[in-house]
Amino acid sequence: MFHFDRPTRVFRFSTLVAALFAPAMPALALDLAAADQDKGAVIFDRKCSTCHDVTGQTVSGPPLNGVVGRKTASVEGFPYSDAMRGLDGAWTPELLDAYLVKPRRMLPGTAMSFGGLKKDEDRRDLIGWLATLKP
């Protein structure tokens, strides 16, 4: 039984919902053809570049070049959290979109302390730009 007055239950329930439905639901709003890649690069610089790199170098987070389509938790030598290692599959645009809304809500236990990107268009632009970067 889920009790919505207890945050730990809400997180577990939201993780279940995200795992079951999030990859399909954001696809309705995620149109990478409409992404503004220049804005995506700016969003990366402002929100992501403190912890991530796009040239293949590990900072405090794994490099994000080639992340779209890459198997989750697969950068060799990076010390992923147990939660991230437990996420199976590939970083599809839809999964990235669901994750970037609020990483710790979708994946409790992740080491990523980023609060998330609330605006659909910001996530679309960032993911659209990341999709252009090769490993």
Briefly, what is this?
This protein is about 40% helix and about 0% strand.
Number of strands: 0
Cα-atom Rg, whole angstroms?
15 Å
Per DSSP, the total helix count is 6
The fraction of residues in strands falls at: under 5%
The outline comes out as globular
Account of the 3D structure:
It is a single chain. The chain is mainly α. 41% of the residues lie in helices and 0% in strands. It contains six helices and no strands. The chain has helices at residues 7-21, 37-48, 82-85, 93-101, 103-106, 120-130. The protein is globular and about 35 Å long.
Name its key features:
single chain, 135 residues, mainly alpha, 6 helices, 0% strand, globular, disordered N terminus
Topology:
Elements lengths: L6 H15 L15 H12 L33 H4 L7 H9 L1 H4 L13 H11 L5
Helix pairs in contact: 2-6, 4-6
